TrEMBL record:
Name the UniProt record assigns to this protein: Acyl-CoA thioesterase
SUPFAM superfamilies in alphabetical order: Thioesterase/thiol ester dehydrase-isomerase
Catalytic class of the enzyme: hydrolase
Keywords in alphabetical order: Hydrolase
């Protein structure tokens, strides 16, 4: 799989009084790109609700390297990493039009079982089961043997 990304541009209401993208906008953009990543694989909000599970953000951290200013076009990536536990990670990179990495934002997530109110043991398996095209959920460069059956 290739790295999923979307092109976005900073709008007036997303910048702070210093003229650069606000802290909240980075998190909103990451959420938007992550939802589009899941939608591309066929996992939509209704799918989660019907199956009584849903993704939860457990931790989020941004590392700001360069500013993004109003009107700048930015590529925002979404790269999943799945481990063997109850959590998985999405790395979002914010890359300016001049190919300079502006920000890295990492979200550690889990999959909440709505009936038990606990994290499921294998969120990657759940995501794959819910997806119409589960292969699109795999990290860039993942081989078939690294993907869950």
């Amino acid at each position: 799989m290739s790295i999923f990304s979307l092109q976005l541009a900073a709008r007036q209401y997303e910048v702070d009084f210093n003229g650069h993208l606000s802290n909240a906008a980075y998190y909103d953009w990451a959420d938007h790109v992550r939802l589009e990543f899941l939608r591309r694989a066929g996992v939509v909000p209704e799918t989660f609700m019907e199956n009584k599970v849903g993704p939860v953000i457990l931790e989020a951290q941004a590392r700001y390297l360069r500013e993004l200013r109003i009107g700048e076009h930015v590529t925002v990536t979404c790269e999943p990493t799945y481990g063997s536990g109850r959590t998985f990670t999405f790395l979002h990179r914010f890359i300016r039009g001049d190919d300079v990495l502006a920000t890295e934002l990492v979200k550690i997530m889990g999959m909440l079982d709505h009936s038990t109110r606990r994290l499921v043991a294998d969120p990657h398996r759940i995501l794959r089961a819910l997806a119409a095209q589960p292969e699109l959920l795999e990290p860039a460069g993942a081989t078939a043997s690294e993907q869950h059956e």
